[in-house]
């Protein structure tokens, strides 16, 4: 079949490859961000703030929310925060036209300094309110992080000793037991200070502290300063001092909020420190049995309504001295004492009314968490001060000692159930504290709205 020229031209016009249209440059997606130098400075500032919080025992959710608030205050609209037990990572997304910026910081040291934590909280409030630049905030954070403790170290030692004396009185001991507990605790604190200078792992410091505390109580019993049936009160006071400051509440809070890695790390640290303490106390008790130093368990006398005022006073004193040993300012001491007085008062009243120890511990912790959140907001004190200080007098020091005594001295397997009960009390305190803080959040929000409304009307 023959094709005419017109037909062939029409065919090739249909087969011609189309010429692509000129492509347009893609438009940038996302808000305009500050310069790279500003982004790096803001991320570094946020990470350093989070490092101080995490080192002080703050919950991972609180650290993440603080970092997001700081980055948003300086114009970084979309950031992702990842908090683990030893590190913090922040990633700033800059749209589709620029690569994200990611930075990480490792938390290498931990310790309690309520003055430093209070200064940090005040700085964060000014940053969120827009009253300070990133350069000014970075310089102020340097000053806060490098500042010396507000009190000398010997005053902290005296505070630990006074706390042990208060706990001994709280447990039902007399003035001599309180004095012996204070002296033993002071020695343990100074020895722990020396061991810390030599960078001895904290686990072995807990072993040494538990062994020294129990050995000092045994010596006091052998010399007649303390009756054999009161030795347990001296050792229990030392156990409470050595258990204070552990991140039990933060571990439970992290687990509830979904930060399982951080919760696992903190739980493992708490268990390891507790095992170290138990090992030291058990070792000293075995040595006492070998040398024939007799001791018996102090009888557990039920609380009555008449002893509630004494419990409140001694519990509040223990919390105040703990906050002082952690370098708290006078306002922090006040909040710690009030929160502990409420918690110990509730626990003692429930015990006198016939409630079991787990129920009493949990309900007292709920009250501490709820009222402590409101007090901390009103007086501008870090909530961590309330959580740790308020629960300190309720720690199961005497129950832990009874379990160790039953296992090491009496050889009774019932000591295992007593130690499990001590763990249950710790978990009840932590869970109750978290629940109280959760219940207080809507109340704090309404109070904040009411204050802003009244401020606007005036």
Automatic annotation (TrEMBL):
Its main location: membrane. Residues 312-437 form the Threonine/Serine exporter ThrE domain. The keyword Cytoplasm does not apply. GO terms for biological process: succinate transport. It is found in: Cell membrane. Pfam families: ThrE, ThrE_2. GO terms for molecular function: transmembrane transporter activity. Belongs to the ThrE exporter (TC 2.A.79) family. This is Uncharacterized membrane protein YjjP (DUF1212 family). It comes from Kutzneria kofuensis.
């Amino acid at each position: 079949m023959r094709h005419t020229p017109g037909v062939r031209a029409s065919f090739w016009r249909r087969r011609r490859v189309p010429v692509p249209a000129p492509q347009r440059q893609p438009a940038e997606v996302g808000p305009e961000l500050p310069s790279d130098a500003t982004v790096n400075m803001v991320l570094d500032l946020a990470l350093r703030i989070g490092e101080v919080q995490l080192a002080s025992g703050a919950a991972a959710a609180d650290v993440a929310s603080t970092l997001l608030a700081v980055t948003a205050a300086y114009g970084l609209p979309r950031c992702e925060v990842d908090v683990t037990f030893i590190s913090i990572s922040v990633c700033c997304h800059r749209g589709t036209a620029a690569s994200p910026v990611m930075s990480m910081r490792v938390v290498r040291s931990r310790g309690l300094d309520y003055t430093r934590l209070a200064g940090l909280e005040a700085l964060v409030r000014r940053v969120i309110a827009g009253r300070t630049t990133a350069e000014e905030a970075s310089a102020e954070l340097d000053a806060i992080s490098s500042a010396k403790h507000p009190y000398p170290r010997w005053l902290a030692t005296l505070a630990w000793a006074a706390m042990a004396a208060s706990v001994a009185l709280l447990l039902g001991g007399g003035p001599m037991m309180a004095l012996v507990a204070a002296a033993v605790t002071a020695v343990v604190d100074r020895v722990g200070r020396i061991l810390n200078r030599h960078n001895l792992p904290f686990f072995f410091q807990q072993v040494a502290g538990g062994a020294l505390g129990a050995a000092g109580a045994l010596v006091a019993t052998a010399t007649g300063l303390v009756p054999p049936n009161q030795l347990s009160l001296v050792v229990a006071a030392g156990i409470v001092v050595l258990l204070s400051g552990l991140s039990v509440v933060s571990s439970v809070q992290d687990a509830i909020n979904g930060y399982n890695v951080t919760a696992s790390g903190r739980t493992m640290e708490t268990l390891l420190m507790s095992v170290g303490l138990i090992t030291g106390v058990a070792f000293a008790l075995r040595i006492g049995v070998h040398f024939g130093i007799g001791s018996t368990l102090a009888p557990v006398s039920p609380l009555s309504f008449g002893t509630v005022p004494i419990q409140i006073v001694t519990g509040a004193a223990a919390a105040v001295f703990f906050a002082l040993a952690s370098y708290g300012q006078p306002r922090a001491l006040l909040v710690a004492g009030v929160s502990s007085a409420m918690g110990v008062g509730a626990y003692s009243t429930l015990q006198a009314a016939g409630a079991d120890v787990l129920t009493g511990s949990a309900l007292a912790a709920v009250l501490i968490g709820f009222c402590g959140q409101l007090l901390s907001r009103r007086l501008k004190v870090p909530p961590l001060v309330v959580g740790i200080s308020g629960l300190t007098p309720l720690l199961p020091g005497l129950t832990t000692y009874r379990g160790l005594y039953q296992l090491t001295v009496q050889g009774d397997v019932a000591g295992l159930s007593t130690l499990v009960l001590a763990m249950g009390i710790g978990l009840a305190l932590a869970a109750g504290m978290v629940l109280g803080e959760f219940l207080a959040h809507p109340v704090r929000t309404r109070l904040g709205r009411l204050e802003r409304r009244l401020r606007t009307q005036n």
